Amino acid sequence: MIQGQQTSGTNSVAQWAALEALEGPQDFIERNKTVFQGRRDLVVSMLNQARGIKCPTPEGAFYVYPSCEGLIGKTAPSGKVIETDEDFVSELLESEGVAVVHGSAFGLGPNFRISYATSETMLEEACRRIQRFCAACN
Q1: DSSP symbol at 129
Q2: Cβ distance 82 to 71 under 8 Å?
Q3: How far apart are CA 47 and CA 64, in angstroms?
Q4: Which structural domain range is residue 23 located in?
Q5: Overall domain count for the chain
Q6: Vertex 60, ends 35 and 38: CA angle to 5°?
Q7: Please, which pLDDT band fits residue 125 given cuts at 50, 70 and 90?
Q8: Better-predicted residue by pLDDT, 50 or 60
Q9: What is the pLDDT of residue 6?
Q10: Is the pLDDT of residue 120 over 70?
Q11: Residue 3 has pLDDT above 80, yes or no
């Protein structure tokens, strides 16, 4: 009974919020669209400059799914051989302090997921670290 009441209908506060989102001001959409396209383009460009990474340009969302297939079989700076996308993200975190999500969690290995819903400054730094990590893999 409790589970049925919690999942079978949207609460009244959420209903009013949804109505306001649909009928309220929409001017922020175009502004945010431009900001997010710039972030996306920055991340895609910088990741495509990283050795062993291929990053297609997504058409929506706020994240990219670059492939790290070009680094599978390479040795990370720690000396560990990168065998999977999970190895790649673990070694990237340990070596450069950059947290990304392995694509296998979404059925998309050997890719990894990066959100670009943060500042350009943080994205540039993260992408420089990813480039440095990839360059150090042999």
Answers
A1: H
A2: yes
A3: 10
A4: 11-136
A5: 1
A6: 25
A7: very high
A8: 50
A9: 61
A10: yes
A11: no
pLDDT at 130: 98
Long-range contacts of residues 54-63, Cβ cutoff 8 Å, at least 24 apart? 62/36, 62/115, 62/116, 62/117, 63/113, 63/114, 63/115, 63/116, 63/117
CATH code for the domain of 77: 3.90.1150.10
Each residue's pLDDT tens digit, 51-101: 999 999 998 889 999 999 999 999 999 999 999 999 999 999 999 999 999
Q: Which residue is associated with the tokens 């990370």?
A: 76
Q: Please report where in the chains the tokens 């996306």 appear, as a residue.
A: 40
DSSP notation for 24-72: S--HHHHHHHHHHHHHHHHHHHHHHTSTT-B-PPPSSSSEE--B-GGGT
Per-residue pLDDT at 2 exceeds 70: no
129: region left, alpha or beta (phi > 0 left; psi from -120 to 50 alpha): alpha
Domain presence at residue 81: yes
For the chain, what's the residue count?
Answer: 138
* Kind and range of the H or E run holding 88: helix 85-96
Sign, Cα dihedral of 56, 57, 61, 66: positive
Residue with tokens 């400059």: 49
